[in-house]
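I'm stuck. Protein, please.
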Amino acid sequence: MTTSVLLKVLANALLSGEQETDAIAARLGQVLDRNWRWIRPLTRRYLEAFAGHTRPRRREVVSFLRADTGFTEALHKHRHQLIVRRWITGPESMQPVAAASAWPVPHIETVAALAEWAELTPAELYWFADLKGLGYKRPQARLEHYHYRALEKATGGIRLIETPKPRLKELQRRILGGILDRIPPHPAVHGFVKGRSAFRCSCRGDFAGGRFCRPPPQDTHAPSGTPASRGPGDKSTPQRSAGGFRSTEGNPYELRAPWSG
């Protein structure tokens, strides 16, 4: 087994399951079929490195292992004895930041739990999320989740209108009402928040002492085709899948307007 594969297997063991010293050390011991003396110190360094953050991605853990002096010394000394005896393939669980612990949102920790909450099969979940953008690499209108229209602007150029199809729109509304609307906005947020506005914020004095107190131009919009924010909290698979429901990067095949030549 190559070192690269070994690192990925150990990273999976670190990430899968409870993020606590004893639990992680036990998983590493199961993978290697031996409780090496360097496992618990490595586990503590791993938890310290990512403390206070959302659960890291596997590539970040692999980078941590490559850079960890204690582990690299153990790897160099015992390389031929480090054999994977058991593969841990358990699903990643979400690890929300501490500030999110009091949010009244559904308890969703895995992809399976997200699919159940959304009333989808796992296959449908991955199809709607389309995290790899396969729908844009081989575009077929019947398989895409959006209708696209290009409109000419009075000032020149085009604006791409992206309209979700009925099933995706239903999922987006479920996420909006069941999750996003339950997350309290930060006090500094004023745009697109009920009862607040960026204009009121500037007049109130939060922006340059209130010196810029005039409405923005009517044609001020976010650039068409810009990916939506992936949302707060975790970088694990469930969060990325849910983020895929409510963002689109536009379909380049739909940008050929008749007036653009």
User: Anything to note?
Assistant: The chain has a mean pLDDT of 78. The two ends are 55 Å apart (CA to CA). The chain has eleven helices and two strands.
